[in-house]
Amino acid sequence: MNFVSIRIITADITRLVDFYERATGLPAHWSTEDFAELTTPSATLAIGSTRTVPLFAPDSAHPADNHSVIIEFLVDDVDTIYKNLTSFVTDFVNEPTTMPWGNRALLFRDPDGNLINFFTPVTLAAIEKFSR
């Protein structure tokens, strides 16, 4: 088995795709007006409009209703990225903070309220873990 993507369902796909393109610096690939993907070397962030939900099962997903998942991105320098994000991110949960497990982490919310964690390993153990 190989974990390949996570999908966010949104009522405003253009706004959310633009936000993630700005936050990550990655270009989105649009398959249709209702579905776009931002691809990293290890996984893909898919973003689908609410119009895609009935294709799976009606009423099976709801936009802006996530209260349990944190979308995480490994970044080279979380402190520098934080400075760049302050020009358009409006909801920071915390500023860059070094966590007990060795990552320097920045937690913020996208326009739909989904939690995003940008982190940089800073201890030897964390650096080794993510350099494999």
Structure commentary:
- By secondary structure, the protein is α/β, with parallel strands linked by helices.
- The chain has four helices and eight strands.
- The strands form two sheets. A four-stranded mixed beta sheet has the order 1-4-3-2, with helices on one face. Strands 5-8-7-6 form a four-stranded mixed beta sheet.
- The chain has two domains: 1-57, 2,3-Dihydroxybiphenyl 1,2-Dioxygenase, domain 1; 67-132, 2,3-Dihydroxybiphenyl 1,2-Dioxygenase, domain 1, CATH 3.10.180.10.
- The radius of gyration is 15 Å and the shape is globular.
- Helices cover 23% and strands 36% of the residues.
- The model has no long low-confidence stretch (mean pLDDT 97).
- Strand 3 and strand 4 (44-49) form a beta hairpin.
Q: What Rg is obtained from the alpha carbons, in whole angstroms?
A: 15 Å
Main beta sheet, described?
Answer: 4 strands, mixed
- Helix tally equals 4
Identify the CATH architecture of the largest domain. Answer: Roll
| Order of neighbouring strands in the sheet with most strands | 1-4-3-2
Task: Write down the overall mean pLDDT.
Answer: 97
Give the distance, in angstroms, between the N- and C-terminal Cα atoms: 19 Å
Number of discrete domains: 2
Sum up the overall morphology in one term: globular
Q: How many strands appear in the DSSP assignment?
A: 8
List the helices and strands in order.
Answer: EHEEEHEHEEEH
Percent helix, as a range, is 10-25%
Secondary-structure class: alpha/beta
